[in-house]
Amino acid sequence: MIAKKRERTEIIYDILSGIKDKGNNVKPTHILYKSNLSHKMLKEYLDELIEKGFIEESEDKKGRKFYSLKEKGFNYVYEFKVIREFLESYDLN
Question: Do residues 67 and 56 lie in contact, with contact meaning Cβ atoms separated by under 8 Å?
Answer without folding.
Answer: yes
